[in-house]
Amino acid sequence: MAERSLRGMSIGAKSLESDDNVDFAARRDVTYVCPQGHKTILPLAADVDAPESWECRCGKIAHREDTEEQEESDDLAKPQRTHWDMLMERRTTQELAALLEKRLDMHKEGWIPDYE
Ligand SMILES: [Zn+2]
């Protein structure tokens, strides 16, 4: 897919080189199809990664029309990294325990109001 090559590029970086070939309002339409056959067309900025799925107006999950079968099964086998996964990659459990301890102390001492 041509869109894939845009991944990771930013308009800001390109504009430094040349304004001539840059369309600042570049948009593309991404089509999502739900199991019921409804089509949802999302106008997205060209430099934004389209989500793999979108909630259809009927409430079902619509999948991106240009998504290849293989890619979908990959996603099922390999769940997306969560914030938790990323946190665990950056901090050891020991560090997290220390952070939690500190945070709890701050709550106890009234530095941070309870959220609920
Ligand atoms: Zn639908």
Automatic annotation (TrEMBL):
Its cofactor is Zn(2+). Residues 62-81 are annotated as: Disordered. Pfam families: RbpA. Zn(2+) binds at C34, H38, C56, C58. InterPro entries: RbpA_sf, RNApol-bd_RbpA. GO terms for molecular function: bacterial-type RNA polymerase core enzyme binding; zinc ion binding. One of its GO terms (biological process) is positive regulation of DNA-templated transcription. Keywords: Metal-binding, Transcription, Transcription regulation, Zinc. Bind 1 Zn(2+) per subunit. HAMAP family: RbpA. Forms a complex with the RNAP catalytic core and with free principal sigma factors. Belongs to the RNA polymerase-binding protein RbpA family. Binds to RNA polymerase (RNAP), stimulating transcription from principal, but not alternative sigma factor promoters. This is RNA polymerase-binding protein RbpA. It comes from Scardovia inopinata F0304. The gene is rbpA.
